[in-house]
Amino acid sequence: xxxxxxxxxxxxxxxxxxxxxxxxxxxxxxxxxxxxxxxxxxxxxxxxxxxxxxxxxxxxxxxxxxxxxxxxxxxxxxxxxxxxxxxxxxxxxxxxxxxxxxxxxxxxxxxxxxxxxxxxxxxxxxxxxxxxxxxxxxxxxxxxxxxxxxxxxxxxxxxxxxxxxxxxxxxxxxxxxxxxxxxxxxxxxxxxxxxxxxxxxxxxxxxxxxxxxxxxxxxxxxxxxxxxxxxxxxxxxxxxxxxxxxxxxxxxxxxxxxxxxxxxxxxxxxxxxxxxxxxxxxxxxxxxxxxxxxxxxxxxxxxxxxxxxxxxxxxxxxxxxxxxxxxxxxxxxxxxxxxxxxxxxxxxxxxxxxxxxxxxxxxxxxxxxxxxxxxxxxxxxxxxxxxxxxxxxxxx
Length: 396
Known about the structure:
Layout: H1 4-12, H2 15-30, E1 36-37, H3 49-61, H4 64-67, H5 77-91, E2 100-103, H6 105-117, E3 123-128, H7 133-140, E4 144-149, H8 159-165, E5 170-176, H9 188-205, E6 210-214, E7 238-243, E8 256-260, H10 267-280, H11 288-297, H12 305-321, E9 325-326, E10 333-337, H13 343-350, E11 355-356, E12 358-359, E13 368-372, H14 377-395
Parallel strand pairs: 1-11, 3-4, 3-5, 5-6, 6-7
Antiparallel strand pairs: 2-8, 7-8, 9-10, 10-13, 12-13
Helix pairs in contact: 3-11, 5-11, 6-7, 6-10, 12-14
């Protein structure tokens, strides 16, 4: 009568969203100020003023039927030209507007991309820990998600494990840097080595293996010496999936793009497959108003100093208390070693102190919790005694 897989997805939901809903109920019971909700990666700082200024200007000056009408299915060409110009000037590449496809945010970018490149039974490699929805997107496209754990010293790629995992069925590998949930940035030598490995595997298996670079956190880095490599510079068969949700605090507006690297073999064919996948999935065009906003806001971010302060306050306090944490170069998450083997049990125990922490199992790895520190700094300060009570409770 119905699609069983769709029912299961709708009936279970994600661990992150379920914890977020639990938090809302707890706030009604014990008061918002007494619940420390670190569940969801929802930007907590306002968009830069240029966003509202541009939107108001567009609403006042652009003719209404044009402003709110359809754009080309792949996106407005002038917008795509602006994006390509910005990317080329910023990262020293030569990408083409004709290979950019506007989307309804990163989820649409990833879904469209997987439907464009995957045939039934082909594999996508995800590097654990990874954003849980990768599995949903891959399996809906008919693919198989193969999980390869990163090393747990610095959460760079475990190349021995990756080499063993790549097979004749491998169609692509998703990388996410800065990473959700660890905040780790893949270093340049990691990307260079990954490119070398994949080039050799392409020769061995006689077919293309794509890097899908999932980049909603690209601009969210906090230290001057942290560089996020632009992957098309290092590997020809790269597809970039980008979203403006995190960098300028617009997650609810759903605007992003897919970029097919101009050096990709058969780039036009891949691009047309992306357009076809978007069509088959029912994406007519990305929201027109927010497309027209993009040329004016490229290069801007929200005030990232707030996230940096949140990171530094939490990292310093929690490590002093005795928690084991991977230092995050970017994004807005801490990846914390659970105080017992079962991360789910640890997260449940943390609720005793009204701490809402996401267990790591759905991220493809056991024994950790994710803390989303895109929160009001005052809440973070209020939560510190609870974190101290939690670890003291475990120490007896």
